[in-house]
């Protein structure tokens, strides 16, 4: 990824405060972002912007036709280039809940936790510059 190319993440959470917090953390990590309040909105964003999105960061429990696990499976099948991080403070994934490529981070999370997780799971070509710098 060249320095002029800043990757996009899609952040999905139905709680506006958590969504803002997660977007701030993702932005600090060097991503631009799109946001959605539920899985249905997220699919619409993916349909329009999938070419520029490299990361899905989603809550599990949300209103609408799909929860975060179903969203993760849909994104993994339709857009296999997108890395997937699922987060929850109440639900832990069981085998099969998430696509094989997806990872899980518990809530409450903070910037250090999320940035360390992203440094570990993102391939070098998808890491924004701030995640390439050792902390």
Biggest beta sheet summary: 5 strands, parallel
Shape descriptor reads: globular
Q: How many H/I helices?
A: 5
Sequence stretches where pLDDT stays below 50 over 5 or more residues:
none
Q: Calculate the terminal CA-CA distance, rounded to whole Å.
A: 21 Å
Keyword list:
5-stranded parallel beta sheet; single chain; alpha/beta
Can you characterise this structure?
- By secondary structure, the protein is of the alpha/beta class.
- Helices cover 37% and strands 20% of the residues.
- The chain has five helices and five strands; from the N terminus they run βαβαβαββαα.
- The chain has a five-stranded parallel β-sheet with strand order 2-1-3-4-5, with helices on both faces.
- Helix 1 links the parallel strand 1 and strand 2.
- The radius of gyration is 13 Å and the shape is globular.
- The model has no long low-confidence stretch (mean pLDDT 94).
